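hiii so my PI (J.) wants the whole complex modelled not just the main chain, which honestly fair. so below is everything: two entries, each one labled with what it is. i double checked the lines twice but i was tired so who knows lol
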Amino acid sequence: MEYAQRAEQSVSLLALLVIWGVATMIVGAVPSLPTPPEVVMAFVDAATGGAFWEEVLLSTFRVYLSFVIAAVIAIPLGLLIGRSAIVEDLLFPSLEVLRPIPPIAWFPALTIILINSANIVRFIIFLAAFFPILLNTIEGVQDVEVEFSQAASSLGASSTQILRHVLLPGALPSIYTGLVNAMGLAWVSLVAAELLSSTGVGYFIWNAFTAGEYPNVVVGMVAVGVLGYVSSALVRWLSAQQLPWLQSTTV
Amino acid sequence: MNERDTTNARTAPDEQHTDSADEKFRSWTESSGTGTVNIKDMTKVYGTDGDELTAVDSMDLHIEAEEFVTVLGPSGCGKSTVMECVAGYLDPTEGEVLVNGEPVDGPDPSRGVVFQENRLFPWKTVTENVRFGPQMRDAVDQSRIERLFDQMGLEGFEDSYPHELSGGMQQRAELARLLANDPDIMLMDEPFSGLDAMTKELMQEKLLDVWEDDDRTVLFITHDVEEAILLADRVVVMTARPGQVKDVIDVDLERPRDIDMVTTDRFNELQRRASESIHDEAERAMEQAEGRA
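here's the output for the full assembly
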């Protein structure tokens, strides 16, 4: 079963490569689209130098830092909003107004406030990750059946204990859904933000483009794709560790 | 108020435990032999102006400490509402519910609750569920937890999650979780209705064992006449909505009881009386349900 699944997933990735390869072979279809071998060569070139890895590390670190900060703020806030109608009325409307604004649209406003471009990039990633985590946490808490809270209080749990032992674990599957989405969106907005600043993988792509080094553009794109994929897989792995009751099968 | 001789059940030969944790548990239980429930002129109305539904109307019921009372009523007669008011999940619209002479103010670990649908926490193992109550007070007594696992036949499932258990086992785990807290009062809302006939009988016997061992008040809600009589000291028959006490039947069958008693003449007599009493109410309840549909 597991092998079959692995094989299917490999086919999915191989198909992507094949489509790309075929597209470059149709002469004139997409002029100057780098072929897979060209990109591999460019990657070997980039990988042997230090600059590429520096950008990769920098971007990865940015994403993870902002992601963690977003989670640390959004999860408790979501628990609070999900549990208290008053807090929800006070905070939710203004958050809902901020939510549709694409993170990258904050860039001009942020250049005035934050000035430091590294902070701007961090803040944009933070915004991208923040809302999916918040909304999923709120929804998760509100979906925990009230019967579980009643049972807990009949067993002597205080409201803090109910929060910790009932609402948080009950909402955790939904919170992890939010975290996986947030990780994906964090990488999307990272590249957008870095195109406008002058560091990181996003800048690597933009720089290669302006210099006409098209294979390097694709190297950067693939790097973002792989990093995003691995990061999301990491969150999924963590979720499997934290949600053992969803892994076990019925006897 | 607490005059019933509680030593009888305890001297049954197979119930003489000697280990010290057990003794300690016993003495603590005996010292806390409270558990009266007094429902006084209680009315519960759901909804607001224009769309009101009176679930319970001026109900009076007094339950002695250590008494086993079953409430028998047609579906939708407000019997669950009564229980939720005693549990502290709902406030009566009028009248009051007194436990040990004090008005109920929210849920309390001295009043354990079991429902038809088990409310074990899906994210906790069976052990974590059973330990939950004592753990909240930092008072886990491991030997007691082990004794409960033994008593409820849950050994071997310590690290399983609730969804991995059968329905009967889930209810036993729920019962163990409630008993771990050593409640004075057990509130049970059709706890065995979802089980197959065989499992249901076993659970009824298990519950009788548990109750005869320790001094607890039980308020048990059911729509099953046989179950109501087999378990109870007194059967309270409720009317169709709005729920009121229609009839109270004293069950004078000797204890300890077991399932074989259902074939005795006295049992049949009591069963006939209860069935007659509830019959008209069930008809009324059905008419109500059709009217609303």
